[in-house]
Amino acid sequence: MDSLKHDEAEQEEERLLTGGLRDGENDGAKFTRNPSTAITHRKPSVWKLCSAITVSLLLILLLLKTSPLETFARWMPSCFKGTGVAGIKDTGGLYLIGAGKADITGPVVEINLMGYADPKQLGSGLRQRLRARAFIVGNIEHPNERFAYLVLDIQSGDTAIRYGIVDALKELGPEYASYSHHNVAVTGTHSHAGPGGWLNYLLPQITSKGFDRQGYRAIIDGAVLSIRRAHESLQPGYLSVGTTKVLNANINRSLFAYLANPEEERSRYNVSAGDDGTVEKDLTLLKFQRASDGKNIGVLTWFPVHGTSMLGNNTLVAGDNKGVAAYLFEKSVRGEETAAEGFVAGFSQANVGDTSPNVLGAWCEDGSGQICSFENSTCSDGRSQSCHARGPFFRVKDEGASSCFEIGKRQFEPARALYDQLNENPTPVWGSLVKSFHTFHNMSEFTFISNGKKVHTCPAALGYSFAAGTSDGPGAFDFTQHDGNENTTSPVWRAVSYLLKDPSDKQRACHAPKPILMDVGEMYTPYQWTPNIVDIQVFRAGQLLIIVSPGEATTMAGRRWKEAVHSASAALFEQEADSARPASMTSAPIVVLGGPANSYTHYITTEEEYGIQRYEGASTLYGPHTLEAYINVTLSFLPYLGARATKPPRHEGGVYPPDNSNKSLSFITGVIRDGTPFFKAFGDVVADVGAFYRCGEHVKATFIGANPRNNLRLEDTYAAVERLDLYRGKEMWKRVRDDADWSLVFRWRRTSEVLATSEVDLVWEIEDWAQPGVYRLRYYGDSKSLGGTITPFEGVSSSFTLV
Ligand SMILES: [Zn+2]
């Protein structure tokens, strides 16, 4: 029997999910490799034709004296249909737009998960594939003026990853020559549930036992593929931007530090009991709508909430709550008339620093039933280890998966409502300008004037509270705590800990009141431990400005940064006489902050929060004036975003951060071989499914497996659910779930080191909307021989009935 492609099957599932069959899509967009050709072809034909028809229709309507807009809308030419109203409402300026998505899932087993810095937290499988989502915006008249904003389901942007992406784009030839450091932003969703080992600096490599080239390449290759897909889809279109409130999806996990900010400042954001200003509740959404047929090709959103819904005991790879939100959004529009095929939803992180998705607060799991101390998140023993923050479904013992799905859903739902609203009532991005700048700035000794005072930053250092962790992941940095157990200490730590040195008096004074635990910014052997050279970058499309932050700015730090950019850019806009901007347009800038991006510079707090020295303050690398320094440099480059700026600032002659990807330590061993137990073959079922299931139940099959690191199966799957269907009178199995689906879990475990045997569990957590029918589970594996040959195999469970 044949198998249908998943897309087809999924679309059908989706129609069931979203209610009712929809009309067939008319995908009018043809991919055009050369954006300039696309413009010259499309603009005159579409625009001249539409304008002519519009004018004629208006004349007819005037003659008939039946002027309501609805009447007009009914007779609109097809080129203006799609949203139904785009032709008659102000659509704003015409831009060059593109969106693309690709798989970046690295090794899902045996590699340390990045984020909680717990060397014992090793991957054991996959809940949901990780994605790169790319969004490109360009100037229609000057297509070289464009930017590419990447949203990766990883912990943060990174210097080695960024170099890898920029270099790979260069190798794609002249068509990709307009992408480089100044206009490519590499942001991470801050998921704490992805494989680590790809970061440029030594410190985050310690818990992952060093650098892992396989995962590093997966991220770069997927990120570049997503940019290529976005680039190939470039075409004229409109941008629309709006803001909505996301309630009950984030709280402030460092309220004690937040309260150190001036009362007067805090009160400006205290809107209501549900939005008291201690975290930002606003989600900003940018909608990409192509001009050819009015269909939307994607959305890009910003909202701050930590990717720590999947807890520190989770060992399944997933994109955390942002990954869920993106997945739900993309599923929800599939098959809809207003959404183009391949619609991409990017849920980018914002000023995430002091936010937590664990909205029920931090509690002591020591039997006391107490909440953790307000000042320093400790419990009765004076330590933070038993303090754990609770997500909405904390009672479900599933390593945070239920809470994670819920927090993703709480972001998706208001974003989707805002999208619908923008379809009816677009609030356009005006003008035509697309500008960007990027600079590498040395933070180790930067002197500048702030509030009339001469201040300076210092080489990076981490304070004592860094080792204590947060209520989202308490005290996980146990590489600093010698318990004498060789097995729980990273081999990297054993190799480098003797290099740690005491900070100088000057360094201590510079970081005060931070007590220095690790003077990481002054350590260059065997290579740098943390960045001193940071990326500062801002993008502009019309009145929208995107600050690309390399660190995790806290709620108030992000606000100060955004406000500084807002007032400076408002002044800049006033000087602009942009012909593409109608007189009705307000010149007020809309400013968002995305990150952690480009490099990982840990946290960015306000000076007042820094004085409190909780985890975020202790992890603010460059001293008390870190935030002011970021703002100062941002503002000094802001004129590069003005209408008169012709070129972005040059990097040549300036400082560059090191690329350590070729000299990083690694104690990560590869797969040696895979074996099977006697009388068994790869893919054999060792524990089969039952005969009947109901929605809400879990169906599981166990197979003789092999190490999934043998083949990452990028753009493909390890696990599948197949349904028996009739297709053109013939019975056939259709794939209806795969690794992209949250409800299908792939788990791998080693059963014997000596025999090199392993087993795989596939578990389908049957959704309440799943269709009754006959199903089976299929496992795709790849085994490795001692000689190194990799051989694919499959395993299939018995069929079962969902009643
Ligand atoms: Zn964080």
UniProtKB/TrEMBL annotation:
The active site is at S356 (nucleophile). The keyword Transcription does not apply. Residues 639-802 form the Neutral/alkaline non-lysosomal ceramidase C-terminal domain. Its EC number is 3.5.1.23. GO terms for molecular function: metal ion binding; N-acylsphingosine amidohydrolase activity. Belongs to the neutral ceramidase family. This is Neutral ceramidase. It comes from Immersiella caudata. The lineage of its organism: Eukaryota, Fungi, Dikarya, Ascomycota, Pezizomycotina.
